[in-house]
Design goal:
This protein is mainly beta. The protein has one domain (about 5-130). It is about 10% helix and about 45% strand. A 4-stranded mixed β-sheet has the order 1-6-5-4. Strands 2-3 form a two-stranded antiparallel ribbon. The protein starts with a strand and ends with a strand.
């Protein structure tokens, strides 16, 4: 399990609302090998955001594509996304990765080494975007 929280500041309007997710096979003595990637377009979510004031997308499966000409499926990740006003984020801060304060959601630290990465397992990546109104 990967379980890593990323926190980004977000200013509206946003001219390029996209998030790229890429997975690599870590290699200690040679170059890391790209496994797959995907780009998520947040345009529709930002349209909803202007009406509702925040976004809370529960875990959603996202498929990664390999970086070769075949563009075949190379794995999957589970991603949850929260977009909230800076005032709310400041009132209830969360840590990056599994750092404290580790809440909303609580992210368990991986118990295994790098051998846990397989294309058949979905891992959770939580992204929190903080709006600066």
């Amino acid at each position: 399990m990967f379980n890593y929280r990323l926190v980004f500041p977000l200013t509206l309007p946003c001219s390029f609302p996209r998030l790229k997710i890429a997975a690599f096979d870590y290699a200690a003595f040679i170059s890391d090998e790209a496994i797959g990637s995907t780009t998520i377009d947040f345009s529709e979510w930002l349209a909803t955001l202007t009406k509702q004031g925040k976004i809370d997308k529960k875990a959603t499966k996202i498929f990664l594509r390999d970086n070769t000409a075949s563009n075949s499926q190379a794995g999957e990740v589970l991603i949850s996304v929260k977009i909230l006003p800076k005032s709310e984020a400041d009132a209830s801060p969360v840590g990056e990765g599994q750092d404290e304060p580790n809440r909303d959601p609580y992210l368990e630290k991986p118990k295994n080494g790098r051998g846990w990465v397989t294309s058949s397992k979905a891992q959770l990546l939580t992204s929190i975007f903080i709006l600066d109104f």
